[in-house]
Amino acid sequence: MAGFLPDDILCNILARLPAKPLLRFRCVSKHWNHMLREPSFMKLRSRKTILLPLETLHLVDHNDDTPDSIVTRRYPLENLLPKHVRAGVVGTFNGVILLRYLNTFILYNPFTCLSMKLPSPPTCERGGYGFGYGANPDDLKIVRFRQHYKTCDVFSFNKGLWSSWDTSKYNIFIKFQHDVGTFINGCLYWIAYDRDVLIVLDVKDMVLSEMDLPFKNDHSWDLLGMVNGRLCALKFVGYSGYDMWVMKEQKQWSKIYSFRSPLFNDHMFPLCNLDGGRIVLGSPKNLIIYDPLKDLHSTIDVPISNGYFWRMNVLEYVESLVSPLDMCSLKRKRDTRNKEKCKKQKNGNYKR
Fold first, then answer.
1. For 78-115, how does the pLDDT look when each residue is reduced to its tens digit (9 = 90+)?
2. C-alpha triplet 217, 221, 224: angle, nearest 5°
3. Could you tell me how far CA 125 lies from the centroid of its own chain?
4. What are the pLDDT digits (tens) for 285-315?
């Protein structure tokens, strides 16, 4: 087949395959393996799934109704951990997710099953977490607010080291409703625990600030997410409906949806929103994808017990072949290239 079809046509065919058979095709030949690892192929594929951190990691393709629409993965290093310890998802970047087990952080690509354990933070404390970058992706960082929120630990992928900074100078009472921040456009956002504000961290300059919420914070099932590249907030307004707000320019909120549906009930809870505006809801029976614009929904056979709702950070995930090892060595590779370039330039000047 590969001998008769041009690579561009072959890539177009393979890009339509679910994850399971696609990964098997990497073993056909060296040429296929190389072709399937090209960034241009993954861009052509660009398949989005819902990432559900249950007892095993579930990758749910909500646009696929075949038996291959749900892929399950065992968590990396889970055999080395106590049984009561569950993994939490902190965030995702370039197809690699950041997992947290107590004081252990692991980069994991669920598409390729490659993983890498990161250096542990200086102390073993729980608090708030975030994963994002500042001016550019080379500025990738993990942040962890300690339990009393007076100190923030920061892991820089550029340096490969943890550092700590004092947050008390900002005069901001830091306590989060949900422990994992939402990363959008260079900032991490958390809903404050008992105030009508968002706590905002500028990842580039590591500056904390506050921003008003567009609604009263009554500790209901409120969520932050992204719609068309903008920060959004989903407000639970009773067991029959939700309001969705989007952040416009100059930090102004605009309500874009206000919807009610008999579909919603007291056994169903919002888990996340997809970038196009659809909402993912969980129930003990199944997973529901609801489109508020069309008032349509689809169901996926993934039951979720009530005990998981508060603990889960559900994400929209884009598959990639990026290796966690490459993420941690970007700076070293760049520095090596620069040194080699300088050395060649010096040698060239010397010869001339």
1. 776 667 777 889 999 988 999 998 888 999 999 888 99
2. 75
3. 22
4. 888 888 888 888 888 888 776 655 555 789 9
Q: What is the 3-state secondary structure (H, E, C) of the chain?
A: CCCCCCHHHHHHHHCCCCHHHHHHHCCCCHHHHHHHHCHHHHHHHCCEEEEEECCCEEEECCCCCCHHHEEEECCCCHHHCCCCCCCEEEEEECCEEEEEECCEEEEEECCCCEEEECCCCCCCCCCEEEEEECCCHHHEEEEEECCCCCEEEEEECCCCEEEEEECHHHCCCCCECCCECEEECCEEEEEECCCCEEEEEECCCCEEEEEECCCCCCCCCCEEEEECCEEEEEEECCCCEEEEEEECHHHCEEEEEEEECCCCCCCCEEEEECCCCCEEEECCCCEEEEECCCCEEEEECCCCCHHHCCCCCCEEEECCCCCHHHHHCHHHHHHHHHHHHHHHHHHHHHHC
Domain boundaries, the chain: 1-45
Q: How far apart are CA 168 and CA 54, in angstroms?
A: 36
What are the structure tokens assigned to 297, written together?
A: 């929904």
Strand order in the sheet with 253-260: 223-227, 230-236, 241-247, 253-260
Write the pLDDT tens digit of every residue in 307-325: 555 557 899 998 887 889 8
Alpha-carbon span 85 to 293, nearest angstrom: 40
The 10 Å CB-count burial string (b at 16+, else e) for 247-258 is beeeeebeebbe
Task: Report the phi/psi class of residue 12: left, alpha or beta, with left for phi > 0 and alpha for psi in -120 to 50.
Answer: alpha
Task: Say if pTM beats, i.e. exceeds, 0.85.
Answer: no
